[in-house]
Amino acid sequence: MDSPFAEYLDSGYNPSDAEIPLIKALIQQKIDAIGSIDKEIKEIIDSLAALKARRKANKIFVQKHQALIAPIKRLPPDILSTVFLASLPVTECTEASMTCNHPAVVISQDPVNSPLHRVNGETAALFDSVVQRLFDLTTIWLSRSKGCPLTIFIKASESAAGGFDTSQSGILEGSLLMGLGKLVGLLLSESKRWEQVRFNLEIIGYSRKSQLSRLLFLAPRDVPILRKASIVINSVDIHILEVPINPSVASEQTNFWDGIVMSTIHGQALQSLTLACPKNATKLKGLQVNWGGLIELSLRPFTLGSGRKGVTHLTTDEALTLLRLCPNLKRCNLAIGNGSHASDWGAPPPVWNPSTTPLAFAPIQDDRPVCRLPHLHSLILREDSGRAYGLASALDLPSLRSFTQINPIQWSRPGMPAFYLDSEHERPWNVIPLVEWVQRFGHTITSIDIKHTGVPQHDVEKCLEGLPNLISLAIRSPFLESLNTTSPWGLGSLACDSFLKTLTPEVTEDGDTVTVTPGCLCPKLEDLALNSFPSSVPASMQLMFHEASVLEFLTGRAKASSKTVPEVNRVSKLRYVRVALVDQKVVDIEQELLQRGCNIEGFVGEWNYPDPPSPHSYLETPHIIDFAKDEF
Description:
Helix content: 25-40%
Protein name: F-box domain-containing protein
Distance between the termini: 77 Å
Organism: Candolleomyces eurysporus
Mean pLDDT: 75
Number of strands: 21
Low-confidence stretches: 103-113, 127-133, 161-170, 237-254, 341-365, 413-430, 485-492, 617-632
Radius of gyration: 36 Å
Shape: extended
Largest sheet: 15 strands, parallel
């Protein structure tokens, strides 16, 4: 630093009185220099800002002129329409709202005289879905859709009105019912264009003022192209209204559907039908559906108030009667029971008592003709209030590939305490409802999805032995061993580990030679899901595994699927696995597999580890039970 005082800087030197004015002069000199530099910096910054502004103006000029000659503006209208339609989402399983964010609406905000706006407004198929109770917007969409077939999703409730005689009934009728009636009338006016409808309606059945029910009673000539219909009718809680209820209301609500025909689904073009309605509305004698034209059929329990499951539709005999009417079915979803309420995770499941029902399936001797469904490849069966005796033996399903069975009954042997682990050799293996289906169709089934509460693990393994071509397996309920609440924590998970071991090939490596010992279950397995439980199910009742067992399973499958293994002993390569782990995460499973030399290309794994324990707070007040555990 150029200063006569340089040698004294950063020291304890104390300048004399004569030196102080000289030092102040030096300081002022540098302050003036700093000011000059700041002025130069400001000039440079201003100059840079001016350059940036000029650059931005030129860039905007270029962009606007490039847009003027954009190739898309030279495309003919038919090509533009194709591009717009290709940008639409698939609406088969997606519900969306009609908003200004819809691609068609965004494009239509272009200047009115532009070709994009004109083509957008004239591309009718952009506006072929009605999904929300917005009358004005629905009117616009219907008008723009012109003559295109319509897909309609509507979810509506009459619970705020429903025809109760209350002091507010006039206000309710003047708002909700009038609005619903206006919308329903608009939709009905376009019924000849309905191609797919999905109605989720809350209707107070005994109300003769119902507006939503008008959607259900169209004549077949009014829905000539209706191909797919899903009608879900939920019961409205009548107790939520603080008004006196006439004792006859309940019976009126039950009997409302007697003799009423949902003629909207009687069109000859119908191919797919889903019903979740009061049982009185689905009696075969009242349904004149073109059964022979159906390729998809789903009859599920309707929902009572507060989300409770309602009664099932069909007994086994009724199901057979219905299926005989539908020889062209490809996919079927049936709830079968005896008319009692369907159970769910919310209530303790009933216990299977073989003292009143035989353990094994004996061949059913009856005069019922076999029902042949040559095209059926997917069957979902929910047995809500007991087993569907003889249904499998009465069916001929040569194309069946995917089978789902849901049975909430808890299995137990007579005279045995709850959760008693019986010996394998004392118990016949064909005691669970899946057995009948495996015995009859196991050679064709490639996908199994089951929910049987508390079945013995051994019985499931025996069923898997009868499924040599199984590719996809999902188990949605705990084994009997996992329900053993009297055992120490971890016994259930150990039992689950042993189940996973039955799916693990025994591999021997000798240099580059890999030998696989035959005998593991499901050699063609590619997809496995063993943790498909709702969040309400406690962890102690789930299928859970140790990390080491999961790694051994994945390693064995990966090595046994190598192309170096002879094809006769080779297993299929896993594509997807989902399991729950009993302990906290220790290793990264994918990284560990790579270190073991496994090929995991194309593999997807979902590992559900338990939540880490919350740190203990010493400021919490201990419970009485905590003191009871203390020993001195």
